[in-house]
Amino acid sequence: MPARRDFVEQGTALEAPKVSETLYRSIVEMLPNAIVIIQPDGSITAANSQTLDLFGLKSLSDFLGRNVFDFILPEERDRVESDLGRVAMSEKLHNQEYRLLRKDRTPFWAEVSGYLIPGTGEKPKGILVTARDISKRKSMEENLRNLSVTDELTGLYNRRGFSLAAEQELKHAHRTKADLVLLFYDMDKLKAINDNYGHAEGDEALKAAAAALRSTFRASDIIARWGGDEFTVLALDVPKGSISVLQHRFDETLERLNGAMGMRYHISFSVGMARCDFEHPLMLQEMLRIADAAMYRKKLGKRIR
Prior knowledge:
Layout: H1 2-30, E1 34-38, E2 44-47, H2 50-55, H3 77-88, E3 93-101, E4 107-117, E5 126-133, H4 135-149, H5 159-176, E6 180-187, H6 190-197, H7 199-216, E7 222-227, E8 230-236, H8 243-261, E9 269-276, H9 284-304
Helix pairs in contact: 6-7, 7-8
EC number: 3.1.4.52
Protein name: Cyclic di-GMP phosphodiesterase PdeR
Organism: bioreactor metagenome
């Protein structure tokens, strides 16, 4: 009987590594994430089948033996190399976001974690990396960011978007001593358009006005629907005297627009201006205040006439 017990115990001990390896492989294949084992030099030595879907591969033979950096966007490689270096020093990598490359070189966002696999002695067996595709989440985040800074009706910046972008440009202008001009536009008689023809027609008028601003100013200029019937433009690198040329171009664009669309009403604006230059540096709120006051004076003058 003792001999039998020794045999069973010995047999169990001998079979244990096989059972552990089978169990390990089963668990790895059941996990939803891609799992990859790489060496400190980046060479790929093992992967589960989910890796095929993640990288758009037909066979693991297209993956094993390759260097992991073949599947990482060049702009991300320095950061990934630094992070893997820390993992090799026994630090853990938790939920880092990188842009990776599929086999067809299409970039995608992935959430990646990494752990050092201990070996015998000082030499580790490698680094275990888990990854999952987060492209949909990143796309949703980008859409939300765009919504938070974009006016839904016109596609221009909204007030928040304008403020963020304009503040950055003003900082740059103060450093480089560039000239900026802020224009504050108020659409004339939008309320009358809404009252007489309906809010849907008023929306069309606002979209037409936004299109006129886009066609007048450069892509580098910051154009926004400030709110309601108000629009703002921060025109960059505008020499003194040239703003009248821009305004004349805008007036011509409106004239063509009014003629081409055959509207039952006329789109026009009252506009105020504030300039920021090296001799007279201004902050954004001060420029807005000056331009708004100038616009109001123009609008008041139209009413008096």
